[in-house]
Amino acid sequence: MTGVQAHRPAFRDPKPTVERISQLAQRVLTGDILLPKFQRDFVWKPAEILRLLDSIARNYPIGGILLWQSKEHLASERTIADLAIAESKPEYPVNYLLDGQQRLSTICGVLYWKPGDPHSRWNVVYDLRSEKFLHLTTLDDPPLNQVPLRFFAEPAALFKRINALEDKDLYGRAEKLFNRLQEYMIAAVTLADMSIKDIAPIFERINSSGTPLTVVDLMRAATWSPTFDLQDAISDVLDVAASKGFGSIDRKTLLRSVSAAAGLGFAVDNMDSLRKKSSDELRDIFTEVTHAVRRSVDFLSTHVRIPKPEALPYINQFAVVTEIFRQLPSPSVSQSAALQRWFWKSTITGYFAGWNTGDMSRDVVAISNFASGAQEDIEVPKPLVNQDVWKLTQFRSNSAVSKMLAIILSYHSPVDLLTGQHIDPGKSLAWSNDKEFHHFFPRQYAVREGLNAARVNSAANIVLLTSLSNIRIKDRAPSAYLGDLIAEVGRGEVVRRAETLLVSEQALDAALQDDFEGFITARSATLQDVATKLASVDDQPEAATVEPDSEGSPDEDATDS
Description:
Mean pLDDT: 85
Low-confidence stretches: 1-10, 537-561
Shape: elongated
Number of domains: 3
Number of helices: 25
Radius of gyration: 31 Å
Strand content: 5-15%
Structural class: alpha+beta
């Protein structure tokens, strides 16, 4: 047995079966198949309901469903398609529906709907003349050729109705649809003998209605009670984070912070243990995390000058920063400087690119030692990247090195090269577009001159520049547009502006000679030098300290702007 095989969880192979959809609907209504609380609300539009029914009528495949057979107690929905679900037998294994909710909801809804709201999505008939499914908006009895779908779940009522049809072709069509609805088969794959921990990786690969399910959804079901809903608790934290532009933090990242705050750790295995906490314990943990998140956001936006979570090189940095501020609400001046060094070092070393469970456990200890004063710094056991990384890495908005460059530029208060205007870091680091990131050696110029395209798009050739200035530069040689700028404002002013963009005078001189390799080499050296200083030196620009929370409610806490 190989090392990889030895660490695989022990469970039976998935069990595929083929079942009638009518039988599956009954299994849902009798409580044998349950919809755990992580499942989304029914989102299909009326046209999608009719399309599914038409596919069944034509005997087209509609895909299978995925079930998880378990004795685990997960909070589950007590209704489906406005229908009550029977209570499951105590201590009896149930089948949690992991994928297929919209399809089973549709079948249950149209077949077992009890007339009430005339505009209900389940008020569906089959027109025997046109052989089409239709939605009605009335409770009036439709013409005989339009048969409500709920009749197909009650054979006696159905055949009493269609016996009144004079057209035997219409009778035959109704009988054919009845048989199809009773006999239509779909594949059902059942996962058994798996723990919540083992099911989580499978969860993260399931896609339901275009929205991936995650371990957060799983833990919502595992921790749900009438007095606590994980989804609501996370939403409340996100509302607090949104006050400083961090409302789009990944939910799984917040769950890492919650798990760490519970004394469990940052790993997915640790998150699994949250289900052992009571509702009162979970509420208290979330209160702590909410206050810590406010301090984290304040630190990142004020000290590091990151306006949005999208600008973070590694999203898991947020989880660690939050746990640090939970344990150390009011860091001293030296601790604040150490925290900044840790952030830059963890960024510039690429530490979080390979953040594994061993690193997570080590960080839990390091945070505790730092917060208690036992250590002056939070250790980052990884060397800084080589300066060649700036030359070799392509600039892309989803690249950690590109984000590293962007926040370093933002940190040094950049100004536009041609106008001297300050560039708004909030706009440039939003990453909704990259319109303020441009090539110092213009791309079109590089193509014309036969320069290596990959090198031209390297991080070392990227500066912050407004779109208007980029249009003015267009495809001109650096010697041309820089020469004109020097003639307009003077060499000293151009040098000053370039330095805010971390373009040294040596790099500028190389650009004035259209020496691309000389420019890239000099710029890479500058970026590396600046990065190294941020990660290791205390003499960084002074920034306001993060104020501790007040004793009032979260909304009353004052934060620095």
